[in-house]
Amino acid sequence: MGDAMVGAALAAGVLRYPVECVVVLAGIPGAGKSTLLRRVFAGRSGVEVLDSATTRDGWRPVLGSIPYWVWRPLVHLTYYVRVVLAIRRGGPLVIHDCATRPSARWLIGWAARTADLPVHLIMLDVPEEVARQGQAERQRVVRETSMAGHSRRWPELVRLAGQDPALVVPGAVSAVVLSRAQADQVREIVFHQAGAAAA
Questions:
Q1: pLDDT, tens digit (0-9, with 9 covering 90-100), for 97-145
Q2: Do 156 and 166 contact (CB within 8 A), yes or no?
Q3: May I ask the CATH class of domain 3-12+19-192?
Q4: What predicted TM-score, i.e. pTM, was given to this entire model?
Q5: Where are the domains of the chain?
Q6: N or C: where does the chain have the smaller number of CB atoms within 10 Å of the terminal CB?
Q7: Can you tell me the distance from the alpha carbon of 12 to that of 154, in angstroms, rounded to the nearest whole number?
């Protein structure tokens, strides 16, 4: 999606995608992904939204007495199994993912390709200090070593998205890179039938 199209979309507060697609909402921890999803999709039906926080909260009543770092791999495994199964069911689907793990990007791309679904990226590009503030506000602070890895890899992903979105997630056909201020302008993510006129 070109800069002019992004500007027009943000001015209207609406991002538009075809029904049969996968949208990956990416950004380092604390960038505001969950906040955007809650604002745009709260109480809305017809769009499947996958957020890893929901998976983590589902395991917490069972494993909450154990330190999270011990059962984190189980959360990741459960989440990505759900992602693959959701992709197989078809779109529209929105996936919350930091996108800094190559294996996760490959898995999403592979699953979308086998389901014959295009992938579109929305990338929340915020400074590390802003993301850390976001973690503090939500009272869910990422380990220092993990955060350093996310922050180190992220700028390269933004650069690659500008060259070719498929270099970020295999098969991706578009990428929108948003600052925090631009993300705050998004009030709707709309999915429309192929060939239908945009409202």
A1: 998 999 999 999 999 999 999 999 999 999 988 888 877 777 677 778 8
A2: no
A3: alpha beta
A4: 0.86
A5: 3-12+19-192
A6: C
A7: 28
